[in-house]
Amino acid sequence: MSLLEVGAVDAQYGLLKAVRGVSLSVDEGETRALVGANGAGKTTLLRVIAGAHRPAAGTVFFDGVDITRIPAHKRVALGIALVPEGRRLFPGLTVEENLSIAGGHRPGGGWTVERVLAIFPMLQQRRTQRAATLSGGEQQATAIGRALMCNPRLILLDEVSLGLAPKAVAAVYESLRELIGGGTTVVLVEQDLGRALSVSTRVTCMLHGEVVLEGASSALSREQITAAYFGVRASSGVGADT
Ligand code: ATP
Protein backbone atom coordinates (compact mmCIF):
# COMPACT_ATOMS: atom_id res chain seq x y z
CA MET A 1 0.00 0.00 0.00
CA SER A 2 1.09 3.54 -0.72
CA LEU A 3 1.93 5.97 2.08
CA LEU A 4 -0.97 8.21 1.03
CA GLU A 5 -4.18 6.93 -0.56
CA VAL A 6 -6.84 9.48 -1.44
CA GLY A 7 -10.03 7.71 -2.59
CA ALA A 8 -12.84 9.35 -4.59
CA VAL A 9 -12.73 12.61 -2.62
CA ASP A 10 -15.33 15.33 -3.15
CA ALA A 11 -14.79 18.66 -1.43
CA GLN A 12 -17.13 21.62 -1.48
CA TYR A 13 -17.48 25.22 -0.38
CA GLY A 14 -21.22 25.51 0.05
CA LEU A 15 -22.66 24.47 -3.30
CA LEU A 16 -19.37 24.90 -5.17
CA LYS A 17 -17.67 21.57 -5.87
CA ALA A 18 -13.95 22.36 -5.70
CA VAL A 19 -12.74 18.72 -5.83
CA ARG A 20 -14.68 15.99 -7.63
CA GLY A 21 -14.03 12.29 -7.24
CA VAL A 22 -10.25 12.64 -6.89
CA SER A 23 -8.19 9.53 -6.20
CA LEU A 24 -4.45 9.75 -5.70
CA SER A 25 -1.79 7.34 -4.40
CA VAL A 26 1.61 8.59 -3.30
CA ASP A 27 4.35 6.09 -2.46
CA GLU A 28 6.88 6.55 0.32
CA GLY A 29 9.86 8.55 -0.97
CA GLU A 30 7.97 9.87 -3.99
CA THR A 31 7.77 13.51 -5.02
CA ARG A 32 4.40 14.21 -6.60
CA ALA A 33 3.80 17.46 -8.45
CA LEU A 34 0.21 18.67 -8.48
CA VAL A 35 -0.37 21.11 -11.33
CA GLY A 36 -3.36 22.86 -12.87
CA ALA A 37 -4.79 26.29 -13.57
CA ASN A 38 -6.02 28.69 -10.90
CA GLY A 39 -9.12 27.31 -9.22
CA ALA A 40 -8.47 23.70 -10.34
CA GLY A 41 -8.79 22.49 -6.73
CA LYS A 42 -5.14 21.84 -5.85
CA THR A 43 -5.09 23.82 -2.60
CA THR A 44 -8.39 22.31 -1.52
CA LEU A 45 -7.04 18.80 -2.12
CA LEU A 46 -3.94 19.56 -0.01
CA ARG A 47 -6.21 20.92 2.74
CA VAL A 48 -8.29 17.74 2.65
CA ILE A 49 -5.13 15.63 3.02
CA ALA A 50 -3.89 17.83 5.90
CA GLY A 51 -7.28 17.74 7.64
CA ALA A 52 -7.94 21.47 7.23
CA HIS A 53 -11.00 20.87 5.02
CA ARG A 54 -13.53 18.11 5.64
CA PRO A 55 -14.42 16.27 2.42
CA ALA A 56 -18.08 15.81 1.46
CA ALA A 57 -17.29 12.27 0.28
CA GLY A 58 -14.36 9.90 -0.11
CA THR A 59 -11.52 8.69 2.07
CA VAL A 60 -7.95 9.56 3.02
CA PHE A 61 -5.67 6.75 4.18
CA PHE A 62 -2.20 7.42 5.57
CA ASP A 63 0.15 4.51 6.09
CA GLY A 64 -2.82 2.15 5.92
CA VAL A 65 -4.89 4.04 8.51
CA ASP A 66 -8.18 5.74 7.65
CA ILE A 67 -7.58 9.37 8.73
CA THR A 68 -10.60 10.87 6.95
CA ARG A 69 -12.17 11.98 10.23
CA ILE A 70 -9.00 12.67 12.17
CA PRO A 71 -8.45 16.39 12.97
CA ALA A 72 -5.52 18.33 11.52
CA HIS A 73 -3.41 18.50 14.69
CA LYS A 74 -3.54 14.71 15.07
CA ARG A 75 -2.44 14.32 11.43
CA VAL A 76 0.62 16.45 12.25
CA ALA A 77 1.41 13.99 15.01
CA LEU A 78 1.03 11.13 12.50
CA GLY A 79 3.56 12.82 10.22
CA ILE A 80 1.65 15.04 7.77
CA ALA A 81 2.83 18.65 7.51
CA LEU A 82 1.31 21.36 5.31
CA VAL A 83 3.21 24.43 4.13
CA PRO A 84 0.29 26.66 3.18
CA GLU A 85 0.15 29.22 0.40
CA GLY A 86 1.12 32.56 1.94
CA ARG A 87 3.44 30.83 4.46
CA ARG A 88 1.59 32.04 7.60
CA LEU A 89 4.62 32.60 9.81
CA PHE A 90 4.45 34.34 13.18
CA PRO A 91 5.65 37.77 11.96
CA GLY A 92 6.81 39.03 15.37
CA LEU A 93 8.92 35.95 16.11
CA THR A 94 12.43 35.33 14.86
CA VAL A 95 13.34 32.63 12.36
CA GLU A 96 14.66 30.46 15.16
CA GLU A 97 11.51 30.98 17.25
CA ASN A 98 9.26 30.15 14.28
CA LEU A 99 11.19 26.92 13.82
CA SER A 100 11.39 25.99 17.51
CA ILE A 101 7.68 26.48 18.08
CA ALA A 102 6.95 23.63 15.68
CA GLY A 103 9.39 21.22 17.30
CA GLY A 104 8.16 18.38 19.49
CA HIS A 105 4.92 17.61 17.62
CA ARG A 106 6.32 14.31 16.45
CA PRO A 107 9.56 13.29 18.11
CA GLY A 108 12.08 11.01 16.53
CA GLY A 109 12.53 12.34 13.00
CA GLY A 110 15.81 14.04 13.72
CA TRP A 111 14.96 17.56 12.52
CA THR A 112 16.51 20.33 14.63
CA VAL A 113 16.95 24.08 14.12
CA GLU A 114 20.60 23.40 13.21
CA ARG A 115 19.66 20.83 10.58
CA VAL A 116 17.07 23.15 9.02
CA LEU A 117 19.65 25.95 8.88
CA ALA A 118 22.09 23.55 7.26
CA ILE A 119 19.63 22.69 4.50
CA PHE A 120 18.56 26.34 4.03
CA PRO A 121 21.84 28.27 4.16
CA MET A 122 19.99 31.49 3.31
CA LEU A 123 18.53 31.43 6.83
CA GLN A 124 21.81 31.16 8.70
CA GLN A 125 22.37 34.94 8.77
CA ARG A 126 18.69 35.52 9.56
CA ARG A 127 18.41 33.30 12.59
CA THR A 128 17.58 36.09 15.04
CA GLN A 129 15.68 38.27 12.57
CA ARG A 130 11.91 38.67 12.88
CA ALA A 131 9.91 36.84 10.21
CA ALA A 132 8.09 40.05 9.18
CA THR A 133 11.39 41.52 7.96
CA LEU A 134 12.45 38.53 5.81
CA SER A 135 12.40 38.43 2.01
CA GLY A 136 9.81 36.23 0.31
CA GLY A 137 12.34 33.48 -0.34
CA GLU A 138 13.55 33.54 3.25
CA GLN A 139 9.96 33.39 4.48
CA GLN A 140 9.25 30.39 2.24
CA ALA A 141 12.40 28.66 3.49
CA THR A 142 11.34 29.34 7.10
CA ALA A 143 7.85 27.98 6.41
CA ILE A 144 9.28 24.78 4.91
CA GLY A 145 11.75 24.54 7.79
CA ARG A 146 8.92 24.93 10.29
CA ALA A 147 7.08 22.03 8.65
CA LEU A 148 10.27 19.93 8.79
CA MET A 149 10.53 20.59 12.53
CA CYS A 150 7.34 18.48 12.86
CA ASN A 151 9.43 15.54 11.56
CA PRO A 152 6.94 14.78 8.76
CA ARG A 153 6.76 11.57 6.76
CA LEU A 154 4.74 13.50 4.18
CA ILE A 155 5.19 17.19 3.45
CA LEU A 156 2.56 19.11 1.47
CA LEU A 157 3.91 22.25 -0.21
CA ASP A 158 1.46 24.77 -1.66
CA GLU A 159 2.65 27.20 -4.35
CA VAL A 160 6.34 27.01 -3.50
CA SER A 161 7.51 29.72 -5.91
CA LEU A 162 4.51 32.05 -5.75
CA GLY A 163 5.59 35.68 -5.44
CA LEU A 164 9.30 34.86 -5.24
CA ALA A 165 12.08 36.42 -7.32
CA PRO A 166 13.73 33.92 -9.72
CA LYS A 167 16.91 33.83 -7.60
CA ALA A 168 14.90 32.99 -4.48
CA VAL A 169 13.00 30.26 -6.34
CA ALA A 170 16.29 28.72 -7.43
CA ALA A 171 17.67 28.82 -3.89
CA VAL A 172 14.54 27.28 -2.33
CA TYR A 173 14.52 24.51 -4.97
CA GLU A 174 18.18 23.77 -4.40
CA SER A 175 17.34 23.08 -0.76
CA LEU A 176 14.24 21.11 -1.73
CA ARG A 177 16.33 18.84 -3.92
CA GLU A 178 18.48 18.01 -0.93
CA LEU A 179 15.36 17.25 1.07
CA ILE A 180 13.94 15.06 -1.66
CA GLY A 181 17.29 13.29 -2.08
CA GLY A 182 17.05 12.45 1.63
CA GLY A 183 13.88 10.44 1.01
CA THR A 184 11.13 12.75 2.35
CA THR A 185 7.77 12.12 0.64
CA VAL A 186 6.51 15.33 -0.96
CA VAL A 187 3.33 16.53 -2.64
CA LEU A 188 4.04 19.87 -4.24
CA VAL A 189 1.69 22.38 -5.88
CA GLU A 190 3.68 24.43 -8.35
CA GLN A 191 2.62 26.86 -11.10
CA ASP A 192 6.02 26.69 -12.79
CA LEU A 193 5.68 23.56 -14.91
CA GLY A 194 9.40 23.29 -15.66
CA ARG A 195 10.23 23.31 -11.95
CA ALA A 196 7.40 20.90 -11.16
CA LEU A 197 8.63 18.40 -13.74
CA SER A 198 12.30 18.71 -12.89
CA VAL A 199 11.83 17.97 -9.21
CA SER A 200 9.05 15.36 -9.25
CA THR A 201 8.86 11.64 -9.95
CA ARG A 202 5.18 11.75 -10.94
CA VAL A 203 2.84 14.51 -11.93
CA THR A 204 -0.92 14.87 -11.48
CA CYS A 205 -2.82 17.53 -13.41
CA MET A 206 -6.17 18.82 -12.17
CA LEU A 207 -8.84 20.72 -14.07
CA HIS A 208 -12.15 21.96 -12.65
CA GLY A 209 -11.71 19.80 -9.54
CA GLU A 210 -10.89 16.56 -11.38
CA VAL A 211 -7.70 14.67 -12.20
CA VAL A 212 -7.30 14.87 -15.98
CA LEU A 213 -3.76 13.54 -16.37
CA GLU A 214 -1.36 11.51 -14.30
CA GLY A 215 1.94 9.84 -15.10
CA ALA A 216 5.68 9.65 -14.58
CA SER A 217 7.24 13.10 -14.95
CA SER A 218 9.90 11.69 -17.24
CA ALA A 219 7.27 10.12 -19.54
CA LEU A 220 5.02 13.16 -20.00
CA SER A 221 5.80 15.96 -22.43
CA ARG A 222 5.20 19.62 -21.58
CA GLU A 223 2.70 19.65 -24.49
CA GLN A 224 0.68 16.81 -22.96
CA ILE A 225 0.58 18.52 -19.60
CA THR A 226 -0.22 21.93 -21.06
CA ALA A 227 -3.09 20.42 -23.06
CA ALA A 228 -4.50 18.77 -19.93
CA TYR A 229 -3.96 21.99 -17.98
CA PHE A 230 -6.16 23.93 -20.38
CA GLY A 231 -8.67 21.15 -20.96
CA VAL A 232 -7.63 20.07 -24.47
CA ARG A 233 -8.51 16.46 -23.78
CA ALA A 234 -7.77 15.01 -27.20
CA SER A 235 -4.06 14.68 -26.50
CA SER A 236 -4.30 13.77 -22.84
CA GLY A 237 -6.07 11.53 -20.38
CA VAL A 238 -5.71 9.83 -17.05
CA GLY A 239 -3.26 7.01 -17.31
CA ALA A 240 -0.57 8.47 -19.58
CA ASP A 241 1.64 6.18 -17.64
CA THR A 242 5.08 5.11 -16.61
P1 ATP B 1 -4.97 28.49 -7.04
O1 ATP B 1 -3.82 28.07 -7.87
O2 ATP B 1 -5.63 29.75 -7.54
O3 ATP B 1 -4.73 28.49 -5.57
P2 ATP B 1 -6.26 25.91 -6.78
O4 ATP B 1 -6.09 24.94 -7.89
O5 ATP B 1 -5.42 25.73 -5.58
O6 ATP B 1 -6.12 27.38 -7.34
P3 ATP B 1 -8.48 26.01 -4.97
O7 ATP B 1 -7.87 27.16 -4.21
O8 ATP B 1 -8.53 24.70 -4.32
O9 ATP B 1 -7.80 25.86 -6.39
O10 ATP B 1 -9.97 26.45 -5.38
C1 ATP B 1 -10.86 25.56 -6.03
C2 ATP B 1 -12.20 26.27 -6.16
O11 ATP B 1 -12.75 26.49 -4.86
C3 ATP B 1 -12.12 27.62 -6.84
O12 ATP B 1 -13.28 27.77 -7.64
C4 ATP B 1 -12.13 28.59 -5.68
O13 ATP B 1 -12.72 29.82 -6.07
C5 ATP B 1 -13.00 27.87 -4.67
N1 ATP B 1 -12.62 28.20 -3.29
C6 ATP B 1 -11.40 28.04 -2.74
N2 ATP B 1 -11.41 28.43 -1.44
C7 ATP B 1 -12.68 28.83 -1.18
C8 ATP B 1 -13.34 29.34 -0.01
N3 ATP B 1 -12.69 29.50 1.14
N4 ATP B 1 -14.64 29.67 -0.12
C9 ATP B 1 -15.32 29.51 -1.29
N5 ATP B 1 -14.77 29.02 -2.42
C10 ATP B 1 -13.47 28.71 -2.37
Task: Explain how this protein is built.
This protein has 242 residues and is an alpha/beta fold. It has a single domain (4-230), classed as Rossmann fold. It has eight helices and ten strands. The protein has helices at residues 42-50, 72-78, 95-100, 113-119, 136-148, 166-181, 193-199, 222-229, and strands at residues 4-13, 16-26, 31-35, 57-62, 65-66, 80-83, 154-158, 185-189, 202-207, 210-216. The chain has a six-stranded mixed sheet, sandwiched between helices. The chain has a four-stranded antiparallel sheet with strand order 2-1-4-5, with helices on one face. Helix 5 packs parallel to helix 6. The longest helix has 16 residues, at 166-181. The radius of gyration is 17 Å and the shape is globular. The model has no long low-confidence stretch (mean pLDDT 89).
Indicate the topology.
Elements: E1 4-13, E2 16-26, E3 31-35, H1 42-50, E4 57-62, E5 65-66, H2 72-78, E6 80-83, H3 95-100, H4 113-119, H5 136-148, E7 154-158, H6 166-181, E8 185-189, H7 193-199, E9 202-207, E10 210-216, H8 222-229
Parallel strand pairs: 3-8, 3-9, 6-7, 7-8
Antiparallel strand pairs: 1-2, 1-4, 4-5, 9-10
Helix pairs in contact: 5-6
The chain binds adenosine-5'-triphosphate (ATP).
